[in-house]
Specification:
Elements lengths: L5 H27 L5 H15 L6 H29 L4 H20 L5 H26 L11 H8 L1
Helix pairs in contact: 1-2, 1-6, 4-5
Length: about 160
Amino acid sequence: GTFMTPDATHELRRTVPDNSKLVSTAEWSALGKGRKSVEAERAFNTLLKAVVQMSPSTSVEETIHKRLIEISSDASGCRDERIAKSLTRIPQTLLLLVRGMASAIFLLVLLYPFHHGIIGGGCLAVVGAVLFFADVVMRDTDNPFDGLCNVTPRAFEELTSA
């Protein structure tokens, strides 16, 4: 801002909010579904291009430009990590194995010859509830962009409104 001329930062001032808005809306939703957002990727590339193509005219602007390039590189790494995490999910075979083991445990408790029906029913209810909630937690934490236990795009939303 105050250390760089408006001409040097014009494109950057336009692309930062555009990119932030797309990340907090289109990209976050796509990542929650295990997909990439082409429009958010395009906006991020436009932002990177704006940083790289800045034309500093003073030594102060040159120093700030170098720092902006470092920040852009860090942001690119964070974006790559965010996308990789969204695309890395529990393999279907592992999910089936875990659910198969849970079903076997439930079946064993169901078939166990309890001497008292109330105790047997209580045990079955407790085991069933524990296995059900374990499955809910496993599926929820498998997707960091959607569900109860997730990361939010709040920082991008704040950047858009700033």
